[in-house]
Amino acid sequence: MFNTAGLFEENQVPGNVAGVSAGTPDLFGSNFDPLNRIGQSALGNTNGLFDTRYDVTQKPDWAAAATGSAIDLFGSFTDFGLQSSVGDNLKVDSSLKSQSAVSTQVQRDKLTGMDIPVGDSGGGPELTLSQTSSVFPDENWAFNFKDYTINHQGLNTLNIKIGYGLKPGITPNEYPDFVPIAQSIDNFLVNYPNETDFFEIVNKNLTAKVLNENPALTDVTIQLEVLPTDRFPYNLESTVFRSRSGQIQENANLSLKDYAMNHDELTTLNLDVNYQYKPGIAPNEYPNFVPIYNKIDNFLTTYPNETDFWEVVNKNLTQTILNENPALAAIKIDLNVLPTQNVPYKQTSKVTRTKPSNPQGTQPAAQLTEKWNFTLADYPIQHQGLNSLNIDVNYKYKDGIQNNQYPDFVPIAQSINNFLVNYPNETDYWEIVNKNLTQKIIADNPVLSSVTVNLDVLPTNREPYENGSTVTRTQDGKLGEGWEFKLPNYSINHQGLNNLNIDVKYQYKPGIRQDEYPNFVPIAESIDSFLTNYPNETDFFEIVNKGLTQKLLAENPALDSLQINLEVLPTNKEPYAHASIVSIA
User: Fold this and answer.
1) What sections of 74-229 are H helices per DSSP?
2) 513: which of 155, 320, 420, 572 is 20 to 30 A away, CA to CA?
3) Which of 498, 468, 462, 504 lies closest to 486, judged by CA?
4) d(CA 418, CA 259)
5) What is the rounded distance in angstroms from the CA atom of residue 14 to the CA atom of residue 36?
6) Helices 541-555 and 520-532, interaxial angle, to 10°?
7) Helices (DSSP H) in 75-198: which residue ranges?
8) Interval 117-126 mean pLDDT
């Protein structure tokens, strides 16, 4: 039932920015996720409405993901065009955004994960766009329902995440109030006629209703997360993207937590299994997830070679599952290996496979994409004073890598440590440190196709902002650089007294010089001044955010693209968490 007191969860969904520097690698993949506009910032608290892993304003590009044309190393959808099941995050992939009546196209930037209109001429993957490329800002909205109770296939509890794109050139009086949309969703679910329908069918029908009822929307993505019960102790998700131009993509996710496996040593895994259904799937073709789970369990339990790298295990597993399920067009499996005493790092193998043809009909052959991730948490460093970093390292293997060519990530981690401990210039900006670090990693490891490193600088008394540098490099010389900072619990007197979580992400222009990197603190101060002195208290937050994003991009010539997420936290007067996401280049 619809309970306004606890309708929307604090962790909400961000949007994407469209296609800046398309030839530049993906930086904010983790912070921007392609298939899902709903879950981009999974921080686990009210400071993270926008999950960096899953974006509700985007939709995944399977072909790009599988061919490696997109270097997405952060997002669940961003990585491979497949959606991830993590936490409260939802994302929508900009690659499936609908085109409005305006003659613009949306192109997803693989560095920032942002969606940017590029005009009639479009642009190939090697095109680098300038700040004047965007006819209109890319505007998105997201909200969610937390712990929504529904009597469907028995008594179930859902987390529902909704993200939608607003048409280019939308006028101030056309912005829809999201509360009636939420009420329409509630009414639809309460009165749904067929209790035996799979949740995939429910979701497909729901997205059609929301899009049809709201002409200001270009597309909508809805994620229905079915929480575990005694009957079904699994985390399940259905995510459906639908655009005004008729595009539809359906995905499902199954997550297995704390899975014990005796491989190399007694190991605990978290598995995220994401799959995309084939185009035009019929209602009677949706597979039951239980046999898929059982097959995964049997595969891992009886795996014959205990010395195989996790990459090899995962490569074989994805092939087995995809081959045995004709209703699937693609699959992505993340094997998250939890730390042990012997290997105290969190490490993840990410493998995506597609079948010979994809929904767009542009991919004649089956494709395989393999990536690896590891993290160094709370890493102490004496640089610009004493700081602590969270270091996230993501890399993609070259196509056709052989089983005996996978590198051991531990020496790579040790090399990173040695690099940082002996870094010669303590005054270098973090961007420069990161640019030099990624160059070393890619040069030292020829089997890597690309590498992305995120240096997240944790807040201190000196500098109480969470901020970070993200750099992606490819083996063929492409470079992408971005920056992100957050202003949590920002108080503003707008439409009454409200608290915001503000998340700012930007990509630097190609070829930026060392003396051109801007200090983010004046940018934060400019945001504060803009919001403090905003003249019209009745403006929708969408209008506020659009003006803010345009102002910051105009003031900072070193930026190639910019995305700002304004998450409005619940109040007694309006007990919903909701978010405006504006991207522009």
Assistant:
1) 76-80, 178-190, 199-213
2) 420
3) 504
4) 33
5) 9
6) 140
7) 76-80, 178-190
8) 31
DSSP 403: G
> How many CB atoms within 10 Å of residue 155?
10
Element (H, E) at 480: strand 479-493
Query: Would you call 1 helix, strand, or coil by DSSP?
Result: coil
Kind and range of the H or E element at 421? helix 409-421
Read off the pTM. Answer: 0.81
**Residues with Cβ < 8 Å from 260, sequence gap 6 or more?**
266, 267, 268, 269
Q: Spell out the residues 6+ positions from residue 114 whose beta carbon is closer than 8 angstroms to its own.
A: 16, 17, 18, 19, 20, 28, 32, 94, 108, 138, 505, 507, 561, 562, 563, 583, 585
The token pair at 559 is 């930026």
C-alpha torsion 262→264→269→272, nearest 10: -110
Check if the beta carbon of residue 292 is closer than 8 Å to that of residue 362: no
**Angle in degrees, CA 569, 495, 529, rounded to 5:** 85
Find the helix or strand (DSSP H, E) in which 67 lies.
helix 62-67
Asked if residue 208 has pLDDT above 60, the reply is: yes
Q: Buried b vs exposed e over 15-51: b needs ≥16 C-beta within 10 Å?
A: bbbbbbbbbbbbbbbbbbbbbbbbbbbbbeebbbbbb
The single-letter code of the amino acid at 346 is K
Give me the percent of the chain exceeding a pLDDT of 70.
76
> DSSP string spanning 507-552?
EEPTT--GGGPPPHHHHHHHHHHHHHT-S-TTS-HHHHHHHHHHHH
Find where tokens 């002409």 sit: 215
Tokens standing for residue 148:
């929504």
Does 110 score more than 80 pLDDT? no
Residue range 526-541: average pLDDT? 96
Domain residue ranges in the chain: 4-584
